Structures are given as C-alpha cells and as structure tokens.
Amino acid sequence: xxxxxxxxxxxxxxxxxxxxxxxxxxxxxxxxxxxxxxxxxxxxxxxxxxxxxxxxxxxxxxxxxxxxxxxxxxxxxxxxxxxxxxxxxxxxxxxxxxxxxxxxxxxxxxxxxxxxxxxxxxxxxxxxxxxxxxxxxxxxxxxxxxxxxxxxxxxxxxxxxxxxxxxxxxxxxxxxxxxxxxxxxxxxxxxxxxxxxxxxxxxxxxxxxxxxxxxxxxxxxxxxxxxxxxxxxxxxxxxxxxxxxxxxxxxxxxxxx
Length: 257
Ligand SMILES: CC(C)(COP(=O)(O)OP(=O)(O)OC[C@H]1O[C@@H](n2cnc3c(N)ncnc32)[C@H](O)[C@@H]1OP(=O)(O)O)[C@@H](O)C(=O)NCCC(=O)NCCS
Description:
This protein is of the alpha+beta class.
C-alpha cells in the first residue's frame, strides 16, 4: 500500500502553520474507517480509491497535530467534517491527491485544488473564465492559454472550498475573477476579486490572496483565510447549511480576537 508523504511544496502555498500530505497513485480502500467506507459504499471503485486517498492524506496531515485516529466524516454537501481544533481541505486529480490542515486558532478556513494542466477543454473556458479572466488569458501567448485557464480554474476552486465551510454560499465561476501576479514562473500568487458581493467578504478584509505552483504536469492552488484577516471589530453570525448546525456557536460567530 502506498503511503502519503509530507508535502513541503503544498505547505509553501500557505503563509505558515499548516501541515500537508500528498499521495501519488491510488488510495487504499482498506485504509478507510468503517464510517468513512459507508459514505462511498455505492460508489464506483475509482471514486472509492480517490476518496480513500483523500482520507489517507488528511490522516497523515492531522497526525502532525497529534490527531491520528480521527474518523473524517463528510457532510451531506460533501465537505469533510474536521476535528473541532482543525480546518483543512482535500483535492484529488488523476494519479495525485493532497490534503492540508491547520489549527483553528490560526486559520478560519483553508482551500486546496489540484488540476491537470491543460485539462479543461476549450469549450468550457468561457464557463470558467469571466471577462476579466479572459482579458488576462488573451494577453498571453496562445500556447500559454490552456495552462493559464487551468490556473484560473484551480484558483477559483481553491477559493470556493475555503469560503464554503464558513458561509455555505454556492459560487458561480463568474462571481470571481483571478488576477495572477505575473505569468511565467512556476510558482506565484493570485488575487481573487469579487464581481458581486460575496458573503465571505463581509467579515474578511481584502486582499484575498492565494498561491499556486505548477509541478509534475499539475497545478495546485492554495487559499487560506487566517484569523488575522478578520475585519477589525466585526462580529458576524454566518448562515450555514442545516447539517452544520451541530457545530459550536463560537465557530460560527466570528469575532476579532
Ligand atoms: C467541491 C468542488 C469545489 C471540487 O470538487 P472536485 O471537482 O471533485 O475536485 P477535488 O477533488 O479537488 O475536491 C473534492 C474534495 O473537496 C472537498 N469538498 C467537497 N465539497 C466541498 C465543499 N462544499 N466545501 C469544501 N470542500 C469540499 C471534499 O473533500 C472532496 O473530496 P472527497 O469527497 O473525496 O472528500 C466542486 O465539485 C463543487 O462542488 N463545485 C461547485 C461550485 C463551484 O465549483 N463553483 C465554481 C468555483 S467558484
């Protein structure tokens, strides 16, 4: 059975204070706890393997915070239900899986997304990219555009996965635009700009900045909201999906500390 390894490259996508693990190849279904296996009982084998890969990576990363035998359940909306003290994110793509976790004392939420560079077919580029993204992509050499669209895609998915556990808000690709700092280097930063008011920006101040890295024919984007980004003096009660109501109220009343 392959085992996940610590991922310094993914940890470098976040400012500090995270633990990440990655796994190449398939996850092992036998590594799932029974309650986790129940969640994918009727799924096709490929989905069971990717789900197992995610749980294996998450387990490795949580172990770095001393949590080794945690059953990582999924909510009805699919988001992982992390231990009370941690937040995190999981992503899998062909032959690769990664998870990141951090302490709730440091982070409001974390988001991660990995994509195969060039995977989004050209016919969906206009779904992924709004006018601002298209303008940026069209300014690049034509042979760079497929990779650039993949960057926009991964950045939006990472941001989505970061904000969702806090707000429960569903976002369309065109609700955001992504502004990479530059094009060329294998690693860099990007800003997320809202094209309509987003719930998360009511209590987190700009800039909304993430990081990406191209590696092994893939791109991984990371987005974190640190406790330090909470708007000064704001106290916001967040609307969350029904299946999150079991969480402690102090998780949901975000206050400047
Ligand atoms: C969840 C989603 C963002 C990515 O899923 P995906 O394409 O299968 O890609 P990934 O493998 O990278 O991520 C899946 C993992 O994300 C996590 N996840 C799923 N839903 C989530 C949510 N709502 N919030 C946070 N994390 C979530 C899960 O851990 C899941 O893996 P698992 O089911 O094996 O545990 C996407 O499917 C989705 O729900 N999109 C709807 C909204 C959207 O994409 N809007 C455009 C972006 S702004």
